[in-house]
Design brief:
There is one protein chain. The protein is an alpha+beta fold and about 190 residues long. The chain folds into two domains: about 30 residues; about 140 residues, Alpha-Beta Plaits. Helix content is about 30%, strand content about 15%. It is built from five helices and seven strands; from the N terminus they run αβαββββββααα. The strands form three sheets. A three-stranded antiparallel β-sheet has the order 2-5-7. Strands 1-6 form a two-stranded antiparallel ribbon. Strand 3 and strand 4 form a beta hairpin. Bound molecules: iron/sulfur cluster (SF4) (2 copies). The site of one iron/sulfur cluster (SF4) has 14 residues, from helix 2.
Length: about 190
């Protein structure tokens, strides 16, 4: 009989422990972010859609080999090499550098082995599309427009909330000083030429 009541006591006790956490959150102050009018609260180590510096990419495929779901596609015409004097990669053309975000799980394993530190997890937190094909981001096409990161569809429309305008400006300003080198990465160049 004593064992029976001990079990009942333990059950009630464990339920109360669980409920204590629930009750604490129940009475805590509620904070609802009115997204998209208000910017989402991203943490400093947030891993969003990639930010890719194509002008530094040597097309070594190490990121693609490290990717556990094989969602990085790279096509190039030949080897590329970093020029140590200006940190820009030259040589073969990068015909394609794409990531399929329908498969990507934002693990950042592709960023770790990159020898030129040109692929990073970015601060773009959302992306939508009308089909699976639109989940493939062609970074080589973005480079032609001086962009290093994709933009969500809704951010390409107007009017935008102030925080979104500001974030778009930051993305454009980040890539624009390198636009010429980004475009040159798409064609073959002499490794010694500047
Ligand atoms: S974040 Fe992970 S899954 Fe996504 S491309 Fe990089 S290695 Fe692949
Ligand atoms: S590991 Fe870096 S340099 Fe090599 S292909 Fe990937 S992004 Fe380019």
């Amino acid at each position: 009989m004593r064992g029976y009541f001990r079990e009942v006591y333990k059950s009630v006790y464990t339920i109360l422990v669980g409920l204590r956490i629930t009750l604490r959150y129940h009475f805590a102050q509620k904070v609802t972010l009115q997204y998209p009018d208000v910017a989402p609260a991203l943490q400093p180590r947030f891993r969003g859609f990639h930010f890719f510096e194509i002008q530094k990419c040597i097309g070594c495929d190490l990121c693609a080999k490290a990717c556990p779901v094989d969602c990085i596609y790279i096509e190039k015409s030949g080897p590329r090499k970093i020029d140590k004097t200006d940190g820009i990669a030259r040589g073969g053309a990068l015909h394609r550098f794409a990531i399929d975000y329908a498969k990507c799980m934002f693990c950042a394993l592709c960023c770790e082995p990159c020898p030129t530190d040109c692929i990073h997890m970015g601060d773009v937190h959302d992306m939508s599309g009308y089909d699976r094909r639109s989940m493939i981001v062609e970074f080589t096409e973005l480079a032609q427009r001086g962009l290093q990161t994709p933009q969500p569809l809704w951010m390409q429309k107007r009017p935008l909330p102030e925080w979104a305008e500001q974030r778009k400006r930051q993305w454009i300003e980040r890539g624009s000083p390198h636009r010429d080198e980004m475009v040159k990465a798409l064609t073959e160049s002499d490794p010694k030429a500047k």
